[in-house]
Design a protein that fits this description.
By secondary structure, the chain is an alpha+beta fold. The protein contains six helices and twelve strands. It has one domain. The strands form three sheets. Strands 1-12-3-10-6-5 form a six-stranded antiparallel β-sheet. A four-stranded antiparallel β-sheet has the order 2-11-4-7, with helices on one face. Strand 5 and strand 6 form a beta hairpin.
Length: about 240
């Protein structure tokens, strides 16, 4: 553990695993791709009211973007800012493609039962997320779009998606500030468009720390006019 007084917790997440935490307003999580080539699919919910959750279309159209990086906010379906990206050494994170399921994992990696492979078994994001949601009284009806951190997918002029290889290098980092009390569910299964037939999901390191609330000159607040309104709605929620 670090001696930094602002750091609350540090932990390594193995590849192909699931993890969740209610991030309190005024905390942040920094994720580090320790080996390179990681993917972290993240789902976001208002921890005080799970009915409110991440809205991908509003997030992208309000900020005029098809990818996420520093300065971007993650909007709920009620127009509030669940979290914002305050640091990013990668420059591009995929909000479009979603996460793997049992059929896609089976087609790509073949059979990989736990009884045979033990901790190397072929998991998939859909099933892991469903189990994690159940811990909070939710089920598959509560699935939302994910943000795939450390992964880059380009939309071609034809409308086709193209996955970019070797996008995230070892040591790459991204930091998410929690602007509400936000339940984040993190899954480290491979991106569903990542090529290859060998099951080799990469680990990440997470660091949770205290951070100031966004001030009037906050970079995320000022990066888009819409974000100013989003933060105003969020701050009014906590009056």
């Amino acid at each position: 553990m670090t001696t930094d007084p602002f750091v609350l917790w540090e932990e390594s997440l193995p590849g192909g695993s699931i993890w969740s935490h209610v991030f309190k307003r005024g905390t942040a999580v920094r994720l580090t791709d320790t080996m390179g080539g990681a993917n972290v699919s993240v789902l976001f919910y208002n921890a005080d009211n799970f009915v409110e959750r991440y809205n991908m279309p509003d997030t992208l159209k309000s900020q005029h973007t098809a990818h996420l990086t520093t300065g971007h906010c993650l909007y709920s379906d009620m127009g509030r800012v669940l979290a914002s990206i305050t640091h990013d050494s990668v420059g591009w994170h995929d909000p479009l493609v979603g996460f793997s399921n049992r059929a896609s994992a089976l087609a790509q990696y073949g059979e990989g039962p736990y009884q045979t492979l033990r901790n190397g078994w072929h998991t998939n994001a859909h099933d892991l997320i469903a189990v994690e949601l159940a811990k909070y009284g939710m089920n598959e009806r509560d699935f939302t779009a994910s943000v795939n951190l450390f992964s880059k997918v380009v939309v071609e002029d034809s409308g086709a998606f193209r996955y970019v290889l070797d996008h995230s290098l070892a040591g790459s980092t991204v930091e998410l500030r929690s602007d509400m009390n936000t339940l984040m569910i993190l899954c480290t299964c491979p991106h569903p468009m990542a090529p290859g037939v060998e099951w080799a999901p990469q680990p990440v390191r997470l660091t949770i720390k205290r951070v100031p609330l966004p001030a009037a000159d906050d970079a995320c607040r000022l990066s888009r006019p819409e974000n100013g309104r989003g933060f105003t709605l969020t701050e009014r929620y906590f009056l």
